[in-house]
Amino acid sequence: MMGYANSGQTASGVHIRLRARTFIVAEPQGNRVVFVNLDACMAEQLVTIKVLERLKARYGDLYTEKNVAISGIHTHAGPGGYLQYVVYIVTSLGFVRQSFDALVDGIEQSIMRAHENLHPGSVYVNKGEILDAGVNRSPSAYLNNPAAERAKYKYDVDKEMTLLKFVDDQWGPVGSFNCFATHGTSMSRTNELISGDNKGTAARLMEDWFNQKKDARTANENRRRVSNIVQGAQVNHHELLELAASFESVSGKPVTKYLSISDTWQAISQCCLKIVSFFNLIHIG
């Protein structure tokens, strides 16, 4: 595993599956930037090079080293062996092709999905202090800094969280990007389960919480609108027609063949966007 430089730390299971989450921010007919939030200890030059090669083959010069950033969340509970430098792969006993390919494939697929789901929207930013979420692991050492230096800061750690909110013009909130300085070491050096650690867990919980809340809210809104008139359907037939007409139609796609079950499910899923949540430090590679 990658993070603690412990050759005896080998993976034996999965705590939380690792993800590559991507946002693309683009101007109409103008510049665009890709940011990939990778559930790994860090991004890596060779991984980035291979991803860029695949993007060039697929999209030409649309995505290059000038507008693609891949950032690891710095979990210390991810697979090792994917880095090109010897010092980082000694404890994984060399290069592990399986780890490397999994990262490259996941990043490529994540960027493809983001590219296919570009929608008009807005980005909002906010900041705030988050207390009791992290500590200085060596406060006595921090006190050795000059008093004038320490006087510049309110705490002995950075407690400011920056949050970006992505809002789709049609579907509402679709994503968040959280930047808060905590080390990805909640899982110890004796852990043998693949995990996104604190930031990977936070992203998963945020996505699950918001999507469940959003699904429940949508269902309740529709139920409230209908419940007032369904019981008197015979009397309120005209109101039912007005209600049906009030739901905004969306443009469809030409169908030349019957859709398989998987294609049907994918089409339904794309109509109801789920939120994507980033949590990072940030490390850019």
From TrEMBL:
Binding site for Zn(2+): 74, 183
Molecular function in Gene Ontology: metal ion binding; N-acylsphingosine amidohydrolase activity
A Gene Ontology BP annotation from the UniProt entry: ceramide catabolic process
InterPro entries: Ceramidase_alk, NEUT/ALK_ceramidase_N
Keywords for the protein's UniProt record, in alphabetical order: Hydrolase, Metal-binding, Zinc
Start and end residues of each Neutral/alkaline non-lysosomal ceramidase N-terminal domain: 1-217
Cofactor(s) required for function per UniProt: Zn(2+)
EC number(s) from the headed UniProt entry: 3.5.1.23
Annotated cofactor note: Binds 1 zinc ion per subunit.
UniProt key word Kinase: no
Transmembrane segments: none
Pfam families, alphabetized: Ceramidase_alk (PF04734)
GO cellular component, one term: membrane
Name of this protein: Ceramidase
